[in-house]
Q: What sequence folds into this?
């Protein structure tokens, strides 16, 4: 987010890939705490941790910006398309799904597909607004109100999915696996907010913004 907020296209980020034991799932034995290449007789988490080669993530901000541009460039707006302003809106919306310093809204968990969901609703709402959500660091609260009214219409469904997931985990004694998340109408996780046809990551039709 900081890289995008600079509006500098030639920006690169190299960071260590941080995965909790819960995130490291072995598809060989089905257990968490290690991956398939570390699975074997006499395995211990401490041994795997000591022998593990450090993994890094390399991010090109220019590529992220390009994907954002391609996602929104054909959107028909009643005002001038301003890509840099759109980048600011994206950074602003990401705050609501949480990060290392800020908690997420109760109904918006990034690991459950919340970023895809909120961007789908943002894309659906944008043509009905009189401008972007932010402008030169200032928030347009009336436009934000329109978007968050749309999000509020889905909150009950968000919470229902989370309760269903928790009950399923309890039922099968398999806590932390098979996370429900926001799913498309085929049962799979939605890959992005790249549709204007109306499909949201919940498999429901996004509500139309209030005029």
A:
């Amino acid at each position: 987010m900081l890289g995008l907020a600079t509006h500098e296209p030639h920006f690169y980020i190299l960071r260590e890939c941080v995965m909790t034991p819960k995130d490291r799932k072995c598809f060989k034995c089905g257990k968490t705490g290690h991956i398939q290449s570390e699975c074997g007789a006499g395995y211990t988490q401490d041994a795997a941790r000591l022998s593990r080669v450090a993994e890094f993530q390399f991010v090109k901000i220019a590529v992220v910006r390009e994907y954002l541009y391609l996602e929104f460039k054909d959107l028909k707006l009643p005002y001038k398309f301003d890509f840099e302003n759109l980048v600011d809106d994206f950074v602003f919306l990401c705050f609501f799904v949480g990060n290392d310093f800020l908690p997420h809204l109760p109904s918006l968990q990034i690991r459950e597909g919340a970023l895809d969901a909120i961007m789908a609703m943002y894309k659906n709402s944008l043509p009905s607004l009189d401008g972007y959500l932010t402008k030169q660091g200032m928030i347009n609260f009336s436009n934000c109100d329109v978007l968050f009214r749309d999000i509020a219409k889905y909150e009950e469904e968000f919470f229902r999915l989370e309760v269903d997931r928790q009950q399923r985990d309890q039922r099968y004694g398999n806590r932390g696996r098979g996370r429900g998340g926001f799913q498309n109408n085929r049962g799979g996780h939605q890959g992005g907010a790249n549709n204007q046809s109306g499909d949201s990551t919940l498999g429901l039709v996004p509500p139309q913004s209030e005029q």
